[in-house]
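User: Here's a chain of 316 residues. Predict its fold as tokens.
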Amino acid sequence: MEFLGFSKALYSTWIFYKPERLLFDAGEGVSTYLGNRIFAISSIFLTHGHVDHIAGLWGIVNSRNNAMGDREKPLKVFYPRGNRAIEAYLDFISRANSDLRYQFEGHPIEDGEKVFLRNAGSFERYIVPFRVKHTRDEISFGYHLVEKRSRLRPEYAGKESREIAKLVKQLGRDAITESYESKLLTISGDSMALPVEEVEGTDTLLHECTFMDVSERKFPNHVSLEELIPLIHQARPKRVILYHISTRFERRLKHYKEMIEKEFKEEDIEFHFIHPSKYSNCDKGGTLMGARLKGRHFITTAEFERDELEMMIEVS
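Assistant: Prediction complete.
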């Protein structure tokens, strides 16, 4: 699956992006769910230092030290430079795990600083952090996953392949192509609605949506669904995954799903909700799946569909 994740506002948030083995935030319970897949994580990108987004990091560090898996790979944690809560937590983890059998690295990064994931010749893929508005005392980031690509210059677009091959021989590839940045995904972290310019051109937008109804919000530090609608209309991402949803709305998620589908029925945009009471996965085919926690047990997708709770959101 492309994404694995869990997100319940106030309690825990983490999103694992499998193609690049990236973990965005590390809320409570992440290592319990991922199990030995924690060894697949190459880098962790923390959006900010609130407990529901970082509490599971210690479990990952400890489990990778003691479980059966590859200890040759370092674990890199990237976070907003100057975020004191994260700095203190990383220091605590390092001191509490002085016997680590692998390399644990904390990397403070700046707004706009590129973190390269792949860099081979002309192919580049990297993370770019950007500041978001959350709480006054917290340095908070969202992240773009960007890929550097090449395309024909406008004056050569539309020519047949034979002509292009001839031009490459005559002028060289660099003379007839240009580089551009393609945003594969954008994740908001905890924030108000992102600026349109941050979202424009992204394939997949993962945006927090704590409130379905803005009237339920007391302070301007989390976004509501109605505030996201204008952003999505203007930016037009190909796919939207809403997460960090408050449990107060879980029994009405079907209603909000129908509302958003009606709002965007003329636009080719996929919508998904990460249910606040279920671990979820999302594949490229556009299906959000999961299992609801009931006591200590999982209910499978099939069982859930038979359940009277229609809160399981599936996008066909």
